[in-house]
Amino acid sequence: MPGVTILGERLRQSLTERHSRHLYRQTLLRDPGCGLEQVIDGRLFVNFCSNDYLGLSHHPDVVAALIRGAKEYGVGSGASHLVTGHCRVHEQLCEELADFCGRDRVMLFSTGYMANIGVINALTRPDDLVCHDALNHASLLDGGWLSRAESKRYPHVDLESLSNMLGNFDRRRTTESMALVVTDGVFSMDGDCAPLADLADLALHHDAVLMVDDAHGIGCLGPQGRGVVADAGLTQQQVPVLVGTFGKAFGTAGAFVSGDDLLIDYLTQFARTYVFTTAMSPALAEATRTSLALLRQEHWRRARLQELIERFRTTTLMLGLKLLPGNSPVQALMLGDAATAQAVSQLLKQRGLQVSAIRPPTVPVGQSRLRITLSAVHSDEHLQRLLDALAEVAEYLQDRA
Ligand code: PMP
């Protein structure tokens, strides 16, 4: 059979299976517009699935900075960082981020996905072990699998399993080999925080290195929005590798890795997703600098976000709905099977609320959910509309029970 026929058959089979298991993902089309009231696929919705947690993506100062950056440096950087793509504005952003995180140095990546893949690959060798929380973001898991090290997953936040995993590794490791413990700071689909202090203790006990990806915490949680690592009071020594992304609280795009001089010097040479790709747009770097300044100054954004999260949780739990624990902007409303999650998401859509149903393979079978995200720029009325609709969801689920 010709190769194209085999390929076509393979693709059709996979797509048909996705459809039949209610797992097919649709691309939505959003029209121009500001804020979280958005025209999506031709209908007006309040968006409760954006990661724009502080509402900075449309901030006029951030938009103005993007335009200024483009005028000063061009839209594209024109080259990789190590050729001529690294502009003064990138350097300024790195210095400001290092100051914000209280860490020695920072380097930039075009996306969080690339940061995680590049860092794990560069840091590990074939005789190393990468220990993942089972619910780590796909980019971390892929980073482990793409590296030549052995990758293992421990059950979600199960410190005993991790301890056993590290203990077994200790018994067979050479003096040269290393264990890298990798975790989301705030888990992207569950919204809970990693037990960072305990993880740091375990890492210390087993001579392992702890890497934290705080994509969803940085900007939103911890003192001055410095994220969950700062919230746990952990030092750079305890968490030598910290990743943050700009596509969420910062409202822009891109990512950073922070650590000591040696780490950043090394990654600048050896992280392939840094070396072999066009540097992040300088215009975006300028916009991100403005976002950083705003999120450092405007504490009200985090206070407002927390207020909305608390009101959301109190009422939703009172309705008898099941939420996973956690005070992050990611709130997981657990619904069980994929079909129910899809039906509830449809019900909310009919009420003008955009909430995405998260189904396998993103989450385990039987743990389909709505991933509801809150933002500092949701109004009281937006929240009330969501809570009213959830009261209907609670009735719908009771009727079915
Ligand atoms: N890490 C985590 C925990 C994430 O949730 C995401 C994306 N949502 C990423 C990394 C990837 O970041 P980016 O979107 O910048 O590629």
UniProtKB/TrEMBL annotation:
Q: Which domain of life is it from?
A: Bacteria
The record's keywords, sorted A to Z, are: Biotin biosynthesis, Pyridoxal phosphate, Transferase
Coiled-coil stretches? none
Query: Binding of substrate: at which residues?
Result: 25, 137, 362
One GO term under biological process is:
biotin biosynthetic process
Per the record, residues carrying N6-(pyridoxal phosphate)lysine are: 248
- EC number(s): the record gives 2.3.1.47
Q: What class of enzyme is it?
A: transferase
GO terms, molecular function: 8-amino-7-oxononanoate synthase activity; pyridoxal phosphate binding
Entry cofactors = pyridoxal 5'-phosphate
The Aminotransferase class I/classII large domain, residue ranges? 46-390
Task: Look up the signal peptide feature and give its range.
Answer: none
Its pathway, per UniProt, is: Cofactor biosynthesis; biotin biosynthesis
Q: Which residues does pyridoxal 5'-phosphate bind? A: 112-113, 188, 216, 245
What the entry lists under Pfam families is as follows: Aminotran_1_2
Q: Which reaction does it catalyse?
A: 6-carboxyhexanoyl-[ACP] + L-alanine + H(+) = (8S)-8-amino-7-oxononanoate + holo-[ACP] + CO2
Q: Keyword check for Mitochondrion, yes or no.
A: no
What is said about its interaction partners and assembly? Homodimer.
Q: What's its job?
A: Catalyzes the decarboxylative condensation of pimeloyl-[acyl-carrier protein] and L-alanine to produce 8-amino-7-oxononanoate (AON), [acyl-carrier protein], and carbon dioxide.
Record family assignment: Belongs to the class-II pyridoxal-phosphate-dependent aminotransferase family. BioF subfamily.
Protein name, entry field: 8-amino-7-oxononanoate synthase
Where does this protein come from, organism-wise?
Pseudohongiella spirulinae
- UniProt lists the gene as bioF
